[in-house]
Amino acid sequence: xxxxxxxxxxxxxxxxxxxxxxxxxxxxxxxxxxxxxxxxxxxxxxxxxxxxxxxxxxxxxxxxxxxxxxxxxxxxxxxxxxxxxxxxxxxxxxxxxxxxxxxxxxxxxxxxxxxxxxxxxxxxxxxxxxxxxxxxxxxxxxxxxxxxxxxxxxxxxxxxxxxxxxxxxxxxxxxxxxxxxxxxxxxxxxxxxxxxxxxxxxxxxxxxxxxxxxxxxxxxxxxxxxxxxxxxxxxxxxxxxxxxxxxxxxxxxxxxxxxxxxxxxxxxxxxxxxxxxxxxxxxxxxxxxxxxxxxxxxxxxxxxxxxxxxxxxxxxxxxxxxxxxxxxxxxxxxxxxxxxxxxxxxxxxxxxxxxxxxxxxxxxxxxxxxxxxxxxxxxxxxxxxxxxxxxxxxxxxxxxxxxxxxxxxxxxxxxxxxxxxxxxx
Length: 425
Ligand SMILES: Nc1ncnc2c1ncn2[C@@H]1O[C@H](COP(=O)(O)OP(=O)(O)OP(=O)(O)O)[C@@H](O)[C@H]1O
Ligand SMILES: [Mg+2]
What we know:
Elements: H1 3-17, H2 22-34, H3 38-51, H4 56-68, H5 72-84, E1 114-115, H6 121-125, E2 138-140, H7 151-166, H8 168-173, E3 182-185, H9 192-203, E4 206-211, H10 212-218, H11 223-236, E5 240-245, H12 247-250, H13 260-274, E6 283-289, E7 307-310, H14 316-327, H15 337-342, H16 349-370, H17 378-387, H18 393-405, H19 413-421
Parallel strand pairs: 3-6, 3-7, 4-5, 5-6
Antiparallel strand pairs: 1-2, 2-4
The site of magnesium ion (MG) has 4 residues, from α9.
């Protein structure tokens, strides 16, 4: 079977599961037309027009489908309707550049390849919400397979978040909804942001990163408006992962806020997350924090950030991958990465990046002294290891009490388990 037919079949399944998904149906009709199957394409186009008679992309496709079927009178009628709506009929039927994810930028930081996402015809017809230009939504080509090690974390992520989102059948069988979001927590520099981008990649969704602490400063007194705009931008460009980084800055326990500003901002977040009339369909809310215990309990209620996942420090395999990635663009030779992985227990992802950079600095100093390029070798890592210390101890020191004494409902079980296996409690 050709790749095109494979795609047609896959889209047919999606349309069967999600009949109201206009953008997929449009894409399917377009593919069917390309494959020369006018009658089948017309079926989908008519479904779209029944739902929305002024659907311009569907009208354009209808013209071509009728022409393909030899029904010129009907084609003419659709054409007049399209023209009355001010739609320019486009030669060929490729009038809807639906979710084509191209323009990959090479060598972007973090192994990420951000792409300019094209909008569906339907999205192009919507009126852009105010403030949209401030909120850049990127496509992420990172996948979970790019996240090294952390098998436990990935399994739980799949089970509690991705699985239900990806399978409507399963969701219905278990009475789950797609409402609500996922809170990633753990020590700093251990891949929370990285994982969130990988989730966006897995879902084929855009990625909108909202760093709360910065934006709160920037928007002091104007924060509710900003919060609303960020949600609107994600809704406008769905499917989209809306990622709130450092969410604790925003949603610290309301009682610990002195001013009215913080309180009303939390309320705005709650209202947006509740998404009246499920307007958050296709918006996946993820948040990250190093201090989940500081979060307002209202933010953690069902339908809001109701799932929580401990992102543990990188294991040896992940540490190797991080060191390799950092060294990728630096001249190096004969480095025993496995040895490095084995000798960096307790290092975070950020510590590993720091270690590699420090090794590179030793090599650079040698190069400057000798006047020729000295690549980074094992010895430089050994030198660097004397300087760079793991940074997560203080985080675990403070997390211990919460894991032991504030673990209502077992929400910190995975943290506790991790600390137990490492004899930290
Ligand atoms: N499992 C992993 N596989 C590959 N790279 C990783 C992994 N974990 C961390 N990294 C790398 O470590 C760096 C730090 O990760 P990231 O910024 O996602 O941490 P974070 O948990 O969001 O930190 P913070 O709490 O400071 O925001 C990233 O640049 C990422 O490349
Ligand atoms: Mg982060």
